[in-house]
Description:
By secondary structure, this protein is an alpha/beta fold. It has a single domain, classed as 3-Layer(aba) Sandwich (Rossmann fold). The protein is 44% helix and 19% strand. Strands 2-1-3-4-5 form a five-stranded parallel β-sheet, sandwiched between helices.
Amino acid sequence: MSTEPQxxxxxxxxxxxxxxxxxxxxxxxxxxxxxxxxxxxxxxKQLESNPVDCVLMDxxxxxxxxxxxxxxxxxxxxxKINKLPIIAITGNANNxxxxxxxxxxxxxxxxxxxDFDALVRVVKQYVx
Length: 128
């Protein structure tokens, strides 16, 4: 295997292609590898087929919302999946309290519009 061990993979679950592309560019500049899920139905499929180090979870994604996806990840049988850091990204954090995020299993959250410095800082905090 010639992959450098320091390359961490981030799954971005986001349905807005604008935000998705921006987030992906920012994280790729930081040398992260990116896996995408366009809706909640794709999140677990992606996690089961790719080794991922962290999940950026938009709360308002279609099919299954981010809270539901987070609960499914936390309930997953594989510890490599159920222990992943999950960073929620939400445009209406007021709809959820930090307690509700914690109860669902969210590790941390970032408000929209995304502050990309904060994004990089939080991701680094969880995956180094």
